[in-house]
Specification:
Length: 56
Amino acid sequence: MMEKLKPCKCGNICIVRVCVYGYYVHCHKCGKETECYMTERQVSESWNRRADNAIK
């Protein structure tokens, strides 16, 4: 089961989107997003960790 996404650093609520190879998280307000991950769980964990190398 996917973790609940934390809000973006800009304060906006973000969503999981589908890409060619899986899923990514995108913020419509500031444009930050993760790389593509194979599962929704992986992408939500990455987003919630806020690892500098995972956020563009």
